[in-house]
Amino acid sequence: MAQAKGLDLVEVFPNADPPVCRIMDYGKFKYEQQKRQQEAKKKQSVIQIKEVKFRPKTDEHDYQTKLKHMRRFLSDGDRCKAAVFFRGREIVHQDRGHSVLERVVNDVADIAKVEQPPMSEGRTLVMMLTPVKK
């Protein structure tokens, strides 16, 4: 029957009793399946993690520039990682790092929330922020 119609006989469920087959144009079926996958891939959004690095002695203008970048990342829908790096004997004053991160949280409170509170990882203090759904 499939040859008479110029189509293919495709086995759909080989483990069924009796096995189920379908008469179809297999090339067209594969093409439409590929198009559906491409369309689904196009509609999905990829969320990235962007990292902004601070220091305990980061000056005001540098801080504002980094904050502006962070706001842009969050408004684009990306998660943001704020990290404070300590060099040398700065590690003794971790309270300064915590104050920098608290300031970041207060400055981006309108567009982001804290996903992971500040955690110490070696010589860095790391915090994760996620954008707030509108």
Walkthrough of the structure:
By secondary structure, this protein is α+β, with helices and mostly antiparallel strands. The chain folds into two domains: 2-43, Roll (Ubiquitin-like (UB roll)); 49-131, Translation Initiation Factor IF3. Helices cover 39% and strands 31% of the residues. It is built from four helices and six strands; from the N terminus they run αββαβαβαββ. The chain has helices spanning 2-5, 26-43, 60-75, 94-107, and strands at residues 8-13, 20-24, 49-54, 79-85, 112-121, 124-131. The chain has a four-stranded mixed β-sheet with strand order 3-4-6-5, covered by helices on one side. A two-stranded antiparallel ribbon has the order 1-2. A hairpin with a 2-residue loop joins strand 5 and strand 6 (124-131). It is elongated and about 85 Å long. It starts with a helix and ends with a strand. The relative contact order is 0.13. The mean pLDDT is 92.
